[in-house]
Design a protein that fits this description.
Elements lengths: L1 E3 L4 E3 L15 E4 L5 E5 L3 E6 L4 E7 L2 H7 L2 E6 L5 E6 L3 E14 L25 E12 L4 E6 L3 E7 L2 E7 L4 E2 L7 E2 L6 E4 L15 E6 L5 E5 L4 E8 L3 H14 L23 E9 L5 H13 L12 E7 L4 E6 L4 E5 L11 E3 L12 E6 L5 E6 L2 E6 L4 E5 L21 E4 L5 E5 L10 E9 L7 H5 L2 E3 L3 E5 L6 H5 L6 E5 L2 H7 L4 E4 L6 E4 L4 E2 L7 H5 L2 E9 L2 E8 L2 E8 L11 E5 L3 E7 L2 E6 L3 E9 L4 E10 L10 E7 L2 H6 L5 H4 L1 E6 L2 E9 L5 E9 L4 E5 L9 E5 L3 E5 L15 E2 L4 E4 L3 E6 L4 E10 L8 E10 L1 H10 L3 H8 L8 H13 L16 H13 L5 H10 L6 H8 L2 H10 L3 H13 L8 H12 L3 H14 L4 H8 L13
Parallel strand pairs: 49-53
Antiparallel strand pairs: 1-31, 2-31, 3-4, 4-5, 5-6, 7-8, 8-9, 9-10, 11-12, 12-13, 13-16, 14-15, 17-18, 18-19, 19-20, 21-22, 22-23, 23-24, 25-26, 26-27, 27-28, 29-30, 30-31, 31-32, 32-33, 33-34, 35-36, 36-37, 38-39, 39-40, 40-41, 42-43, 43-44, 44-45, 46-47, 47-48, 48-49, 50-51, 51-52, 52-54, ...
Helix pairs in contact: 10-11, 10-12, 11-13, 12-13, 12-14, 14-17, 16-17, 17-18, 18-19
Length: 995
């Protein structure tokens, strides 16, 4: 779903200032909104803009400051982006304020003469002026103990120390206006808290004799710690229940001491002398644990008793990085050995989640090293990972979408610049997730350590609507890519070299000020495209009024209904659904219909003429789209709440429903909501909600969980044959298909959700993007990287791949004894060019199944696989290509399995005679090879002679040539060849034979 494309951009990180000496970049950190990032060297700090990539402000520390406080080591932003905290080697925290100067630009264009033309058009995101920033030193905080990690919050700073092992909290400096001190500002650092790591303060730590090496706080509010023993924890700061008793004890301790920091490290000072300041404690849950080998435990106990230390044991599963995916409710943990583990969020009453080790591709057996950085994209679909020797992109299901551990081809080491292919220090996703910003270790040159790698991503990552999943639809930074192979001949679809992607450029004037693209929508026929960026929608027909375009933002998605664009917008803290016509100018005066909502829209979905609107208050609203003579409007049919069913409305990523056939034919569309089976993807769970009316006619829902960690799903309400109402989901490894999901009965109780096993599981070696139902093919893509000796960079592209799914579905029916259903389904595809190939794959898969290995006795045909083979042969007899399919499969199968195969298919000689009788001479020639290998040809090769005579009469000279070669190959003396020629008219009068 995410594929690197084009080539990476390299940024020159040394500011073009006269007094700045080049220094290697130690680390970088993105601002909370990802629009800015800062680069840190040992003595300076530079703030950059992401798009366009340019430095905005720079501050250097003096020599005195470096001597007194130490060199810079790490940096962090405050949540509001107004401050930056720098950590030094001598455990000082340097506070830098970030002031945004309004209506001022950091760069001024040079003076150009009036005759000079200014023809420089801004690129995506470059139309907004570079705002002037001012960096100023606010102060220095001396921390007690060696600082390990710093995590700024809204009202305070949390940091961990090693001596003593503790977690501390201090508030931001506050400037109080005092009338008695002539309006002078004074700083106050009241309320400093310290929690010593011990059994008493942290009883939930598995090993209290540790330090907190990393404190991580995600935008979603989830806080995680990594401790020095390599374990990871979910933590939360809670107000103590017995705060009054603790306050009295603290007050007594305060009277006994004259210093603000107590000996036990538990200090909570307050300006209120009554001791009513609330007290807090930490609660935590271990999310990454491992068992230390017994010999290590025994050695440690021996070392403790003797007082001597032995060599340190390095645990390979030791956590060194962690990334929280709140949208899918699980965590990614990077380990010391370089492995990646995915773990679901722990629950209070449930069992401990079992981690899933993600497979890291390493075809050349190169060392990846330890994990250095990890970050999820803002949509939660992909994880970017950096190692000491490479990088990779993983989907939420664990599939590797792209990777780089060095380069495959020979390169010029002196000219090659893309050092991120060999090592990564840090990384983060830029706004919109179209670019990955990567920091590499310092090399020979102290400049050019930052690279920006562009990506193309599936449009369903922005909006998972049925129309977007109907086509392979990719979104790039400045264009949309639509797969047009479904409109091409059959062979063009399965040919990977076919150029079947249509590139559609987005208007430059829109992208310049509204980058990045947030939503993309494709119409049901694939002819209309709409996109929405930072403000307003764009349809390659943009708003004529800039003020109207900038007045609202699209939130919740946009959809096409024929020529009408349906958009959910947020404007002045109110929420609306608007309808625009493709044939009219985009303006507020031409809005066809406005529907005001009370809550923001989470997701839109369109099924026929029903618009499903799911909002943040956990309500599903059903609208009918009603065309009138002059306009088109929305009619609200009903609403239903999912309180108690969906715990987190923001986790809903896909929405659709299925209506029973009786309701479709005879029912009133207004009543659809009461009888519809609702399909949702909630986090990573594919969920079906089935309506059930109680005695009071109140509609309740039974939940069925079809699968976990589903990345995308496709629902085909108008499938072909048995594929109607089928449900397709991809879990990162396999395409899982539930046939006729509407008819699957619930097996669980009303209180507990039931799980449903898929009908078909299709393994794929590429990432699927679309299911071409009418061609029986799954279309997808995979990334490719190329290097050249004469190039200094790596080129990335995505290649189209395909996979036939027809034989998988047919095998399911045949294994279930549903031969009639299989025949009915296959007849919809029998005119495809590759239909016979699909049948051959089906037969070959069954024949090559494990139950046939080593079994040569045709009498042992009572196994289930043998019954499946009989069903396959019965199924093949309904199609003219059956003879070609059988012999094609036989020639691709080991001879040890032929006896079993032909014991069910029939005598190959009888099949040969059938081919001759029906004039299928090429097929008969293939059976001739089978007869020869089975030693069923007589000494005079009468069957070969008969076939040769038929080929001569049909003037099929290519077949004649192959038959003569066959006769020559089976008899080195040439006797068989001379006999055949004597029986035919292929001998020339002079005695020469036709070659």
């Amino acid at each position: 779903m995410y594929f690197p494309t084009s080539a990476a951009r390299q940024l020159l990180t040394v500011p073009a200032l006269p007094d700045v000496s080049p220094e290697p970049v130690l680390c970088f950190e993105a601002s909370p909104r990802k629009s800015l990032f800062c680069l840190l060297t040992k003595s300076s700090l530079t703030v950059w803009r992401v798009r366009p990539s340019a430095p905005l402000a720079h501050i250097s520390r003096s020599e005195t400051s470096l001597i007194e406080h130490g060199d810079n080591t790490a940096v962090a932003w405050s949540p509001d982006g107004s401050r930056i905290v720098i950590q030094t080697t001598m455990s000082y925290l340097i506070l830098v304020t970030v002031d945004y100067v309004p209506d001022a630009s950091v760069y001024q264009p040079s003076h150009m003469g009036p005759s000079v033309q200014r023809n420089f058009l801004p690129g995506p995101g470059e139309g907004i002026p570079l705002q002037l920033l001012s960096l100023a030193l606010e102060g220095v905080i001396c921390a007690e103990g060696q600082v390990l990690s710093v995590s700024p919050r809204k009202n305070y700073i949390i940091f961990s120390t090693s001596s003593p092992p503790a977690v501390q909290r201090i508030p931001w400096p506050v400037y109080d206006e005092s009338e008695f001190e002539e309006q002078t500002a004074r700083r106050s650092l009241m309320g400093h808290d310290t929690w010593i790591l011990s059994d008493h303060e942290f009883p939930w730590l598995l090993d209290p004799d540790v330090t907190v090496t990393k404190i991580l706080h995600s935008i979603s509010g989830v806080e995680t710690w990594i401790t020095s023993d390599g374990r990871a924890y979910f933590v939360r700061l809670q107000e103590s229940r017995h705060s009054e008793d603790v306050s009295e004890r603290d007050e007594e301790e305060t009277d006994k001491s004259s210093t603000p920091n107590q000996a036990n490290g538990l200090s909570r000072l307050s300006t209120d002398s009554s001791g009513s300041q609330p007290h807090y404690h930490w609660e935590g849950t271990c999310i990454h644990n491992f068992e230390v080998p017994r010999w290590v435990q025994k050695q440690r106990s021996t070392d403790d008793s003797s007082g001597r230390l032995s060599s340190t044991y390095i645990e390979p599963r030791r956590a060194v990085a962690i990334a929280v995916n709140a949208r899918f409710s699980f965590i990614a943990v990077g380990t010391q050995s370089g492995s990646i583990e995915f773990t679901s969020f722990p629950t209070q009453d449930g069992p401990t989640p079992i981690p899933k080790v993600v497979e890291v591709p390493n075809p050349y057996d190169r060392s990846s090293g330890s994990v250095t950085a990890m970050e999820w994209s803002s949509d939660g679909y992909v994880l970017a990972v950096g190692w000491t020797h490479g990088w990779a992109i993983f989907s939420v299901g664990g599939r590797c979408l792209a990777s780089g551990f060095g380069v495959e081809d020979h390169i010029d080491g002196d000219r090659f610049q893309d050092t991120f292919m060999h090592a990564v220090e840090n990384l983060f996703w830029a706004p919109g997730n179209f670019e990955l910003v990567v920091l590499t270790p310092s090399g020979i040159k102290p400049d050019g350590q930052v690279f920006v790698l562009p990506f193309a991503k599936s449009a369903t990552t922005c909006q998972h609507s049925p129309d977007n999943t109907r086509y392979a639809f990719l979104q790039m930074d400045d264009r949309a890519l639509v797969y047009r192979g479904a409109e091409q001949p059959d062979m063009s679809v399965i040919n990977p070299e076919s150029d079947v992607w249509q590139h559609i450029k987005i208007p430059q004037s829109y992208l310049a000020t509204n980058w990045p693209i947030k939503y993309s929508a494709l119409s049901s026929d694939g002819r209309l495209i709409a996109i929405a960026g930072r403000r307003g929608p764009g349809r390659w027909k943009i708003f004529s009024s800039i003020a109207q375009e900038q007045a609202f933002t699209v939130k919740g998605g946009l959809l096409w209904f024929h020529h009408v664009l349906i958009v959910s917008v947020e404007i002045s803290k109110s929420y609306q659904i608007r309808l625009y016509s493709r044939d009219m100018e985009l303006s507020n005066q031409n809005v066809l219909h406005r529907e005001v909502l009370m809550s923001p829209v989470i997701i839109l979905s369109l099924v026929d003429n029903s618009l499903l609107v799911y909002t943040s208050d956990n309500m599903l609203n059903h609208y009918l789209i009603v065309p009138t003579v002059d306009t088109i409007k929305l009619h609200l049919c009903g609403s239903i709440t999912f309180d108690g069913i969906i715990a987190s409305p923001s986790a809903v990523r896909a929405l659709s429903w299925m209506i029973p056939n009786a309701q479709k034919r005879l029912g009133d569309p207004v009543d659809d909501l009461a009888v519809a089976t609702v399909l949702m993807v909630v986090g990573g769970q594919l969920v079906l909600l089935r309506p059930r009316k109680s005695g009071t006619q109140e509609v309740n829902y039974d939940m069925q969980i079809f699968a976990e960690r589903i990345e995308f799903c496709w629902i085909h309400l108008r499938g072909i044959g048995a594929l109607e109402n089928s449900l397709w989901g991809y879990d990162g490894q396999n395409m899982r298909v539930w046939l006729n999901a509407l008819a699957i009965e619930s097996s669980g109780s009303a209180d507990e959700p039931s799980s449903v096993k898929e009908s078909v599981s299709i393994p794929l070696d590429f990432y699927p993007l679309s299911v071409l139902m009418d061609k029986g093919i799954i279309i997808g893509a995979e990334h490719e990287a190329a290097t050249r000796m004469n190039l200094s960079f790596v080129m990335f592209r995505h290649a189209t791949s395909s996979h036939l799914f027809l034989h998988h579905v047919l095998r399911y029916h045949l294994e279930s004894g549903q031969v009639k259903e299989a025949v009915a389904l296959a007849k919809h595809y029998q005119n495809l060019v590759f239909f016979a190939h699909a049948l051959e794959i089906l037969l070959h898969t069954v024949v090559e199944s494990e139950s046939f290995v080593g079994s040569e006795d045709p009498s042992t045909s009572a196994s289930p696989e043998s019954g499946t083979l009989s069903a396959v042969i019965e199924f093949l007899d309904h199609f003219d290509a059956s003879l070609d399919v059988v012999v094609g499969c036989a020639r691709k199968t080991e001879m040890t399995r032929w006896k079993r195969l032909f014991s069910i298919v029939g005598n190959p000689h009888a099949l040969f005679e059938t081919c001759l009788a029906s004039k299928r001479l090429k097929t008969a020639g293939s059976y001739l090879l089978v007869l020869h290998n089975l030693e069923q040809l007589d000494e005079n090769n009468k069957d070969a002679v008969r076939l040769l005579n038929c080929a001569v009469k049909a003037q099929d000279w290519q077949l004649c040539r192959e038959l003569l070669r066959f006769l020559h190959s089976i008899d080195d003396t040439g006797k068989a060849l001379r006999h055949a020629l004597s029986e035919t008219s292929l001998v020339v009068q002079k005695g020469d034979t036709v070659p």
